[in-house]
């Protein structure tokens, strides 16, 4: 097998490029909770000097126009190939006098900005939901875009919920934040779960080490953790209280989120009014759940395409410190690949992570096989990406 197969690589699988005059030199992918994924792909065009200014794009298959569906495969080996499905949001052409100069060709760089398959959920609309559960709302919204919903069912029912001139994605994001759930989009799959639920499908957990031993090349380039109950740049763990209005007694009743009752400081959920103690208790529990991963760390590691939001990652080594060894939950990841066109040994791949824990010395991850048992593939139909199976969940 060629050595380049094990080196960092990226390829545009769709639309298929038939010309050898273009190749990917750089890729940056950004993935986080409650946000659309964004990927920037830089393509180097080798333009024949004999071509006219208007004709070189046609000879090189041409630029990908706005809205074009794109399928990118990237990774650092056969076992780490990752698929990304998105649409061209915009592109920019960048050239400089310092670009490589050749006798027969001129080099021109084009950077495509791609947004994920969930970007179709940006149209604003107004509608009302009555006497339905959050899981029903999420399933209905996702299936209307032919996205596969993986929703953690709950007993909570919403008496009434209005969507006023708001996009479906923003509506799901705000609902998830109020209920203490985590919204994660993975290509054509949408997850709405508790923050501690693992979205990992397989058994493998990417692991990285920081030994600080001479002669050993560590896979953790940097690690920075900030622990503290009220540190603004790190964790935030507070006693969450809420108040509900009792129509019969005309008084406000106080409720405390059970999971945060032992915290040192107090915060209140007063952004939205609560018409009952039950509703106030639900909002207090939701706010406490959103800060479940209150211990946060930032790390730069050797690139690995298996690092995804909602998946676990393992850190080890004496250089990590006494309490930081073990499992963490990925909350945000940015992949950066620089690909050398002729020498794969000069290619680089790194990943920047934001990870979290629910306690300083460990992570109490919840494994929910019912959420990840079905692996949904993505297909192209009428120019849009959609999940092959949207399920009955």
What does this entry look like structurally?
There is one protein chain. With 393 residues, this protein is mainly beta. It has helices at 56-59, 134-144, 168-179, 277-290, 369-372; strands at residues 9-14, 22-32, 38-48, 69-75, 82-94, 105-116, 124-132, 148-151, 158-167, 182-186, 189-193, 197-198, 207-209, 220-226, 239-246, 251-256, 266-268, 295-302, 312-316, 326-338, 348-357, 366-367, 378-381, 384-387. The strands form 6 sheets. Strands 1, 2, 3, 4, 5, 6, 13, 14, 18, 19, 20 and 21 form a 12-stranded mixed sheet that branches. The protein is globular and about 85 Å long. The two termini are 42 Å apart. The model is unreliable at 1-5 (pLDDT under 50).
Write the layout of secondary structure elements.
Layout: E1 9-14, E2 22-32, E3 38-48, H1 56-59, E4 69-75, E5 82-94, E6 105-116, E7 124-132, H2 134-144, E8 148-151, E9 158-167, H3 168-179, E10 182-186, E11 189-193, E12 197-198, E13 207-209, E14 220-226, E15 239-246, E16 251-256, E17 266-268, H4 277-290, E18 295-302, E19 312-316, E20 326-338, E21 348-357, E22 366-367, H5 369-372, E23 378-381, E24 384-387
Parallel strand pairs: 8-11, 12-22, 13-19, 15-17
Antiparallel strand pairs: 1-4, 2-3, 2-20, 3-6, 4-5, 5-6, 7-9, 10-11, 14-18, 15-16, 18-21, 19-20, 20-21, 23-24
């Amino acid at each position: 097998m060629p050595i380049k197969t094990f080196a960092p690589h990226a390829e545009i699988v769709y639309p298929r490029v038939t010309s050898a005059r273009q190749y990917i030199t750089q890729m940056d992918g950004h993935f986080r909770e409650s946000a659309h994924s964004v990927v920037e792909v830089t393509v180097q065009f080798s333009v024949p000097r004999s071509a006219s200014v208007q004709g070189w794009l046609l000879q090189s298959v041409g630029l990908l126009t706005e809205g074009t569906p794109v399928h990118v495969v990237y990774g650092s080996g056969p076992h780490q190939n990752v698929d990304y499905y998105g649409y061209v949001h915009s592109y920019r052409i960048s050239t400089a006098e310092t670009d490589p100069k050749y006798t027969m060709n001129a080099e021109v760089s084009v950077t495509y900005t791609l947004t994920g398959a969930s970007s179709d959920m940006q149209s604003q609309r107004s509608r009302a939901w009555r006497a339905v559960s959050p899981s029903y709302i999420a399933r209905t919204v996702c299936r209307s875009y032919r996205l596969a919903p993986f929703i953690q069912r709950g007993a909570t029912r919403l008496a009434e919920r209005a969507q006023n001139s708001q996009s479906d994605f923003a509506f799901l994001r705000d609902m998830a934040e109020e209920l203490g759930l985590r919204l994660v989009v993975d290509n054509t799959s949408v997850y709405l779960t508790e923050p501690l639920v693992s979205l990992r499908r397989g058994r493998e957990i990417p692991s990285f080490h920081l030994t600080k031993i001479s002669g050993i090349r560590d896979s953790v380039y940097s690690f920075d953790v900030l622990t503290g109950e009220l540190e603004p740049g790190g964790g935030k763990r507070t006693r969450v209280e809420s108040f509900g209005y009792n129509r019969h007694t005309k008084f406000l009743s106080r409720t405390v989120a059970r999971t945060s009752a032992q915290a040192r400081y107090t915060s209140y959920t007063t952004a939205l009014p609560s018409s009952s103690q039950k509703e106030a208790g639900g909002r207090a529990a939701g706010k406490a759940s959103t800060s479940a991963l209150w211990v946060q760390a930032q790390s730069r590691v050797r690139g690995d395409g298996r690092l995804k939001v909602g998946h676990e990652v393992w850190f080890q080594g004496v250089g990590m410190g006494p309490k930081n060894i073990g499992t963490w939950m990925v909350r945000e990841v940015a992949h950066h690949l620089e690909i050398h066109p002729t020498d794969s040994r000069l290619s680089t791949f790194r990943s920047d992570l934001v990870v979290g824990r629910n306690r300083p010395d460990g992570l109490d991850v919840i494994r929910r096989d019912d959420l990840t048992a079905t692996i949904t593939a993505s297909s192209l139909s009428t120019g849009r990406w959609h999940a092959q199976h949207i399920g009955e969940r």
